[in-house]
Amino acid sequence: MTSPLVSIRGLEKRFDLSGSFLEQLRFEGGRLRRKQEAVHAINGVNLEVQKGEALCVVGESGCGKSTVARTVMGLLSPSAGEIHYGGQRIDNLEGKAALPYRRKMQMIFQNPYASLNPRMTIQQTLEEPIRFHHPDWSPVQVRDKIHEVMHSVGIDPDWGSRFGHEFSGGQRQRIAIARALAVDPEFIVADEPISALDVSIQAQVLNLLMDAQESRGLTYLFITHDLAVVEHFGTRVAVMYLGRVCELADTKTLFAMPRHPYTQALLSAIPKLEDDRPNHIRLQGEVPTPVNLPSGCVFHGRCPYANERCRQEVPQLIATDGGAQVACHAVEEGRL
Amino acid sequence: MALLEVKNLDVRFAVRGGDLTALRRISFSLDKGERLGLVGESGAGKSVAAFSILNLIAKPGYIAGGQILFEGKDLAAMSERELRKIRGNRIAMIFQDPMMTLNPVLTIGTQMVEAILAHRKISKKEARAIALDRLQKVQIPSPEKRLDQYPHELSGGMRQRVIIAIALLLDPEIIIADEPTTALDVTIQAEIMDLLLNLCEQENVALMLITHDLGVVSQVTQRMLVMYSGRIIEQGPTREIINDAQHPYTQGLINALPQMGEPGARLFQIPGSMPSLKNVPSGCPFHPRCNFATDQCKRAMPEYVRSGNVDVACYEVANLIEQEKRMQEAES
């Protein structure tokens, strides 16, 4: 296989909860102790994104999928681990050195009501990234580029002087996509780009993203909680739970034969049109807090197949005969 | 007689520059123990429909016409005082966001007891016993402990269970649930829907479920209404509509779902978006987005025609039915 476009190696991210030094002090058992707490958002994630594919990261709220997206983009700095883009380590780059990568990597956010500046016209919104990354371009070049991207996302170029609030949710998301495409990126991180939109509009935006991928040869890291979208859109899927990847597989393989017990439960929970009653795999309890991670496999408290080894030892992603990589002792031992 | 019958309900919002019509001639009925789904995209008027049943639409909204008959009495014509005896007691509501519905500074127990005492003359101790019973019914782990906890101490799924327990407190006839699981994760959503369905069946409570998720509607409800721009455009048995939708909008909604398309292929898309109430198109409000639209559709809103057990408001469907009839006549 050729070398990946983006590779995430041993990524960890913790958010400190304990505040300043004085706030950390606790009086316990007659002594003053310093107590530190952190949210363990990502705990050792390894992922590789191949050129031209759409890698989908799925999971429920709190599993760390958005944190992965933001760390890859450099919006958050990793607590440990490395991010490589085209063979070059980028998580430690600053200022001018990071600039070319900021152009090649663009992001689309979930909420188009929040991601467009309400005081800028569409023209200004689209102009800003182009002027920033191509200071040498003439006004005519900039204008042509804006027309080109607006046209390609299905927004009338004559609407450039309007403001964000004059558009519907679906149109705003098109504008947000146009802004990402304006600097001709190679790699787009899309963090739940359609979950704030209505069903009929979701289809429009998904089609637009697929068209852009085809015509511009884009690579996507697509973050979502909606498995139906993944099945339609993704080349490969990574399922995350409490900051770890529990299954990584080709979309077809994953949907045909989910191996990890969590993936199975997640797939069974999607309401399907042909169902007459809910029929999902019941899990015990709820997602534990990422402040105090469970020992061993993070899923063991809710897993019907958990045994002593699962409570002690952290499972690693292991390739199975079906082609999927699964982090589960039960699968590895052939119990499942 | 149906338990609840809504007849030609009109709801308007009085704003500067004239009234906006949010609901136009909505008619449907709900039988005892029946589960009805209300489907539509944002702006279709499904929440307004749910709120107007209990006359909960805030100003500038008002009921401009029509009747809401609950056991034969018109809720739209009732005084606030009489309505208060029905709200929460005979007809309960479940809202989308459990954190917004629970009072953050009162314990779960206090809020539940308060709701019971507002309608029943019993002691606090008895009320607390009822509250505990309902918490057990919604399968909350260690229910005694929850009574003395505050909403922020519970997870999202657990809060929604508490809300369902509160809805069940006074053994209502109808539960109106407005997108009860939209704020929750898929696995939690599945649990909550399963719970709601089982409780409604056990207690023979009628459920009006408002949602945009066609999968949920198909799993939980027996009949469904599809709304578009303040009108019901299709209503009938859920299975029949899901398997063979008649209205072009309903067809579009179903075909736009990613699971309906071949993986990697372009999805079916309905062009454009739902019109705002300020400029609802003339005639059939869907005509600017419809592939079958003719001049007739631009002129007047189509009347309902019956196809199988489904009522549809569409000229195209009416024409097809007409054609079929003529063909059959010609054959015989």
UniProtKB/TrEMBL annotation, chain A:
PROSITE patterns: ABC_TRANSPORTER_1 (PS00211), ABC_TRANSPORTER_2 (PS50893). The keyword S-adenosyl-L-methionine does not apply. InterPro entries: AAA+_ATPase, ABC_transp_ATP-bind, ABC_transporter-like_ATP-bd, ABC_transporter-like_CS, Oligopep_ABC_C, P-loop_NTPase. Keywords: ATP-binding, Nucleotide-binding, Transport. It is an enzyme of class 7 (translocase). SUPFAM superfamilies: P-loop containing nucleoside triphosphate hydrolases (SSF52540). Belongs to the ABC transporter superfamily. CDD domains: ABC_NikE_OppD_transporters. The complex is composed of two ATP-binding proteins (DppD and DppF), two transmembrane proteins (DppB and DppC) and a solute-binding protein (DppA1-A5). Five orthologous SBPs (DppA1-A5) are present in P.aeruginosa, which increases the substrate specificity of the DppBCDF transporter. Its EC number is 7.4.2.9. PANTHER family: D,D-DIPEPTIDE TRANSPORT ATP-BINDING PROTEIN DDPF-RELATED (PTHR43776:SF7), TRANSPORT ATP-BINDING PROTEIN (PTHR43776). Part of the ABC transporter DppABCDF involved in the uptake of various di/tripeptides. Is also involved in the uptake of phaseolotoxin, a toxic tripeptide inhibiting the enzyme ornithine carbamoyltransferase. Responsible for energy coupling to the transport system. The keyword ATP-binding applies. It catalyses: a dipeptide(out) + ATP + H2O = a dipeptide(in) + ADP + phosphate + H(+). GO terms for molecular function: ATP binding; ATP hydrolysis activity. This is ABC-type dipeptide transporter. Pfam families: ABC_tran (PF00005), oligo_HPY (PF08352). One of its GO terms (biological process) is peptide transport. Residues 25-267 form the ABC transporter domain.
TrEMBL record, chain B:
It holds the Pfam family oligo_HPY. Its EC number is 7.4.2.9. Its main location: membrane. GO terms for cellular component: plasma membrane. This is ABC-type dipeptide transporter. It is an enzyme of class 7 (translocase). Belongs to the ABC transporter superfamily. The complex is composed of two ATP-binding proteins (DppD and DppF), two transmembrane proteins (DppB and DppC) and a solute-binding protein (DppA1-A5). Five orthologous SBPs (DppA1-A5) are present in P.aeruginosa, which increases the substrate specificity of the DppBCDF transporter. It is a peripheral membrane protein. Residues 6-254 form the ABC transporter domain. Keywords: ATP-binding, Cell membrane, Membrane, Nucleotide-binding, Transport. Part of the ABC transporter DppABCDF involved in the uptake of various di/tripeptides. Is also involved in the uptake of phaseolotoxin, a toxic tripeptide inhibiting the enzyme ornithine carbamoyltransferase. Responsible for energy coupling to the transport system. SUPFAM superfamilies: P-loop containing nucleoside triphosphate hydrolases. Coiled coil: none annotated. GO terms for biological process: peptide transport; transmembrane transport.
